[in-house]
């Protein structure tokens, strides 16, 4: 399974980890400082509100993408990334999904390359061909 970790999948994984650490660092600060998390989020002026709306729209669009892509690629539990984003952060779950998606796509590419090599790949015997030591006579 390690062969499915493409450079792109590793980039997505690194972004996922950065998203988790970055968001939860500030979440922990808000908890320690006894801040009104949602009050700060929604009440800190137009610039913060603009950023909030921007990120919420992206999160909804990304959630739709996660569900649709997970179904299209036959990835089980795609909905869990969306639920997980409410418990952790979308900055964590979305790149994590993209990493998992890239691994699935790489597995499909490798599978297709194996199928394209077909029965004539080294070690395989194509129908009608003879195996070593077989004369090919039928009868």
Binned, the helix content reads over 70%
Task: Outline the low-pLDDT stretches.
Answer: none
Number of individual domains:
1
The succession of helices and strands, N to C, reads HHHHH
Count of DSSP-assigned helices: 5
Largest sheet entry: none
Rounded to an integer, what's the Rg over CA atoms?
24 Å
What is the rounded distance between the termini? 44 Å
Structural class designation: mainly alpha
**Taking all residues together, what is the mean pLDDT?**
84
Describe this structure in words.
The structure is a single chain. With 139 residues, this protein is mainly α. The chain has one domain (2-109). Helix content is 71%, strand content 0%. It contains five helices and no strands. It has helices at 7-32, 37-43, 46-73, 79-87, 90-117. The protein is elongated, with a radius of gyration of 24 Å. The two termini are 44 Å apart. The mean pLDDT is 84.
Explain the layout of strands and helices.
Blueprint: H1 7-32, H2 37-43, H3 46-73, H4 79-87, H5 90-117
Give a concise summary.
This protein has 139 residues and is mainly alpha-helical. The protein has helices at residues 7-32, 37-43, 46-73, 79-87, 90-117. It has one domain (2-109).
């Amino acid at each position: 399974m390690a062969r499915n970790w493409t450079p792109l999948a590793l980039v997505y994984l690194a972004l996922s980890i950065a998203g988790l650490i970055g968001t939860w660092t500030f979440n922990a600060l808000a908890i320690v400082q006894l801040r009104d998390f949602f009050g700060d989020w929604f009440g800190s002026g137009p610039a913060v509100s603009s950023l909030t709306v921007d990120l919420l729209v992206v999160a909804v669009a990304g959630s739709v993408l996660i569900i649709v892509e997970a179904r299209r690629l036959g990835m089980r539990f795609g909905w869990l990334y969306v639920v997980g984003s409410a418990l952790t952060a979308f900055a964590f779950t979305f790149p994590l999904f993209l990493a998992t998606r890239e691994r699935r796509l790489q597995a499909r590419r490798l599978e297709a390359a194996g199928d394209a090599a077909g029965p004539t790949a080294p070690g395989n015997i194509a129908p009608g061909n003879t195996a070593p030591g077989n004369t090919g006579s039928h009868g």
